[in-house]
Amino acid sequence: MDKVFKKIFVYGSGIITAVFVLYYLIGRFNYPVVDNHYTIKALCLFGAVLILFAVFCLIQIKKAKKGVVTGFSEVVNVFVKYRFLLAQLIGKEFKVKYRRSYLGIAWSLVNPFLMMIIVSAVFSFVFRFNIENFPAYLILGQIMFNFFSEATQFSLVSVLGSAQLIKKVYVPKYIFPISKTLFSGLNFLITFIPALAVLFYYRIFPTVSFLYLPLFLLYLLMFTLGVGLILAAAEVFLRDVQHLYGVLLLALNYVTPIFYPADSLSVPMQFVLNFNPLYHYLQYFRDVMFYHNCPTVEQNAICLGLSILVLGIGVGFFAKKQKKFILYI
Amino acid sequence: MDQKYAIEVENVSMHFNMSSEKIESLKEYFLKLAKGKLFFKDFVAVSDVSLKIKKGEVFGIVGTNGSGKSTLLKIISGILTPTTGKVTIDGTIAPLIELGAGFDGELTARENVFLNGAVLGFERQFLEDKFDEIIDFAELHDFLDLPIKNYSSGMVARIAFAIATVVKPDILIVDEILAVGDFLFQEKCKKRIQSLMEGGTTVIMVSHSIEQIEQMCDRVLWIEKSIPKMIGPTMEVCAAYKGLANGQ
């Protein structure tokens, strides 16, 4: 295992540096005058990420040499040793989801489109907000929120739902929330097709800011997986989590500016909004896809920081609790 | 680790917490917690077991119901983590503890072969190569594309057994699974297990059929009410175990 982490360290730092240089140049090109401290801020963020990554890898290598199995080493194992099972589990989701429906996978294309039409009809005729190209604004918020809510809700029941498997053979338990999150992630990518169609209809075409999309997807995936891991582990011990989370999601749906503009809120509410992680991700997403703004260094720092924090807590919490899963399922 | 041994179990104990009094509400829970009166009854399922099983050995575990045999097997196969102690394994394990782990009723037999194979740690290429062999063994050619929820339990067991034993594992863990399917298929299963044993696979088996243990095993562990009572050559241990029936 320590060899795998050494490899991760070498390639990882290379990739981080390459990604930094790439996005630094894209950003530089976009903020020639506006932000004087751009270079310093970007370098600070890069340095912080690289140091954090190096420390993380060193700790993992040290523990792996001692033969200690950490949560992260199990997560890595899911992608190395259990890759085929992961692919099978994700494939299974697709097969089961679309079996015996005539439209099959086309539902993933049609669904967001229909939802967008309904919601935008409601908000165009019943309530009115002053947003240009409202359907395009709306569909971006919707597909992102749907991804988050679907992935976390699936993850939540993933460990309990795999009780039969967990009781019978050894598989790393991380594989269940991970496969659900990746499955929802693939669905999310499919829903980009109708979303792009709506954007093109309103003559919003890709610009250089679209290059930030992979970065955004990575942040959101890490964050969502982290939340999913926490929920999945908590649900095993406390079945109330499922019901509570349903309510929480509804609240989250309203405090995230999906169908209203953030500045339509009162000033105190706008302040509260800052504590909603999804708000930051959605803002990033819309900047990239809708407003054609390259996200600032601060935006990157907030989104990346949240992702790392939540994923770290998720993996750690899951690692601490997973040994007792089998006694409660 | 000594290369001679396939499995080393060192002082393994497994404790379960059973709450001894019912706590009705969260308030009560916190009150008890604050007073330090939160009692749990400690239930010991396996207590201080140490074993060393040599490569190629056929090892049996006997004991009355609820003695911790299956718990011990689950600890060895890595499904349960022991409360204290350590298990070291050298080689690949095929746990035939319960068959058909990870089958999905909505999927067809063909799809389930790949899913279940992946659960057991096989590679895609390997499964594609061995696919016909698995189906031949299970004798289910006509039902390949039927969702497995429509299968009878015997049919499911056939296909599960075929997948689990398609590879020659280093260690085979067998827990009372020879009781599946009709008698023809049971014979077939026994033959397959025997051919695996002859191929140098280490086998750990649990069975209530003492004749089966006597026939197959080299050494036996007798575990009684979670405590290992006796470990040694098959005949000695089995004789002592059978003594139980005669009131010792």
Key phrases:
heterodimer, A: 329 residues, mainly alpha, 2 domains, 0% strand, B: 248 residues, alpha/beta, Rossmann fold, 6-stranded mixed sheet, 3-stranded antiparallel sheet, 8 helices, globular
State the low-pLDDT regions of chain B, or none. none
- Helices of chain A, by number, come to 14
**How much helical structure, as a percent, in the residues of chain B?**
25-40%
Oligomer type? heterodimer
> Describe the biggest sheet of chain B?
6 strands, mixed
Overall 3D form of chain B: globular
Average of pLDDT of chain A: 89
What would you report as the Rg of chain B, rounded to the nearest angstrom? 21 Å
Write the element-wise H/E pattern of chain A from the N-terminal end onward.
HHHHHHHHHHHHHH
Strand order of the largest sheet of chain B: 5-6-7-3-8-9
Low-confidence stretches of chain A: none
Structural class by secondary-structure content of chain A: mainly alpha
CATH homologous superfamily classification of the largest domain in chain B: P-loop containing nucleotide triphosphate hydrolases
Summarize the helices and strands and which ones pair or pack.
The complex is a heterodimer of chains A (329) and B (248).
Chain A: H1 2-30, H2 38-65, H3 71-80, H4 83-98, H5 106-125, H6 134-161, H7 163-168, H8 175-201, H9 213-237, H10 240-255, H11 267-273, H12 277-291, H13 297-321, H14 325-328
Helix pairs in contact in A: 1-2, 4-8, 5-6, 5-8, 6-8, 6-9, 6-10, 6-12, 8-9, 9-12, 9-13, 12-13
Chain B: E1 5-19, H1 26-35, E2 40-54, E3 58-62, H2 69-76, E4 84-89, E5 93-96, H3 109-119, H4 124-138, H5 153-164, E6 171-175, H6 183-198, E7 202-206, H7 210-216, E8 219-224, E9 227-233, H8 234-243
Parallel strand pairs in B: 3-7, 3-8, 5-6, 6-7
Antiparallel strand pairs in B: 1-2, 1-4, 8-9
Helix pairs in contact in B: 3-4, 3-5, 4-5
